Amino acid sequence: xxxxxxxxxxxxxxxxxxxxxxxxxxxxxxxxxxxxxxxxxxxxxxxxxxxxxxxxxxxxxxxxxxxxxxxxxxxxxxxxxxxxxxxxxxxxxxxxxxxxxxxxxxxxx
Length: 109
Fold this sequence. Notes:
The protein has one helix and seven strands, in the order βββββββα. 4% of the residues lie in helices and 41% in strands.
């Protein structure tokens, strides 16, 4: 990745999650216990931008230290209505990301 948001400091163990048929990219930072959501500009679902696109910051979850997030999985079947599963010390939690993103994301053309 070239450039990026230099105001955000990521840990040494960051996982990038996305699907071929979604415009969103998620970064899970295990060390800092955060999940950051990005939208792609030059939508990566458009074949003209599949390899080169900008990432627009949308939001970040900062997880509670009392229930450490051990692992994160992106449901590959939900496309532009992403669902993320969080495995924490307190159990598994399903997060429907559009509950948070729908008010801040412009619809695809």
